[in-house]
Amino acid sequence: MKFFTKPRKLILAIESSCDETSVAVIEDQTKILSNIVASQIDSHKRFGGVVPEVASRHHVEEILLCMEEALEEANILTEELSAVAVTYGPGLVGALLIGISAAKAFAWANQLPLIPVNHMAGHIQAANFVRPLEFPLIALLVSGGHTELVYMKENGSYQIIGQTRDDAAGEAYDKVGRVLGLSYPSGKEIDELAVKGKDTFNFPRAMLREDNFDFSFSGLKSSFINTVHNAEQRAETLVKEDLATSFQASVIDVLVGKTIRACQTYPVKQLVVAGGVAANKGLRERIQQEVTEKLTEVTVVIPPVALCGDNAAMIGSAAFVECEKEVIADLTLNAVPNLSFEAI
Ligand code: KG4
Ligand code: ZN
Description:
By secondary structure, the chain is of the alpha/beta class. The protein is built from ten helices and eleven strands. The protein has a six-stranded mixed sheet, sandwiched between helices. A five-stranded mixed sheet has the order 3-2-1-4-5, with helices on both faces.
């Protein structure tokens, strides 16, 4: 590998696609020497979602501090690095450009190669911090903006076999959370409430029986909102916990049902679950349980909760794969807000 001519294989990775400014130093793809994450969630909470302009301003304020802190905590010198990796999409254009500009400047000043990383590939490659990926595999990618089943025939090859036709799973959690009066983002809180209630509302399980690997969550969201509004009009109070349990049961039934069928259709060795929603306790438990029962040949790999949300360590891990493919960007690298894997 032409990148790694120095004694240690070290990459500095930068992530700024949404509302977390993050910089990490990764060694040998799987060792996290530092992973600084500056979250802006408190600034966006009062708006009930991420405000792109606010996000960009925060990234500008945080990026250099995060870079300094990441190098310091990793206890390495700039000269020891072999490359700089950066998320170039998908994400908010203004937010992405802050990370990209910082990465370019650092790469140029230190004469380091610049590795462009797809944020969603980063989510999948976070599984490397648990165990090495084995191929072929299927990844269920569930985040605030994406819900996809991705088939990886070999490392570095990502093909979409199914995806949401409307809302992403995380987006549905956040919209439903708003109706429940929870603060943004509400996935974690709904997950916690869901343990305490019962599935009494029996919300729809969209597309579960259909012969494809696509998802749809907008019908579930509408059904949830209508249920709450109708009750309000009749001055009835619904049990929040039961609403959360019922909503989560529908999401998990569909995600797990489709994922299991995908793993029965493709010859896979591993199932990776990744993205912010992979932090969901109910989903983690249920997918492990069903794979153990139905797919004895398949190993489930889910990153630790702290590495499911956006972070630069996962971008560093994905960058090692790009290095192997010798994917390198020049200083004209631009943000690609709607960057996507190819569909099969
Ligand atoms: O991957 P991520 O950090 O950012 C994007 O790239 O979108 O995902 C954020 C999403 C949010 O929608 C948030 O509500 C959801 O992940 N999330 C969860 C949980 N923790 C975070 N959803 C369900 N259960 C959780 N425990
Ligand atoms: Zn993400």
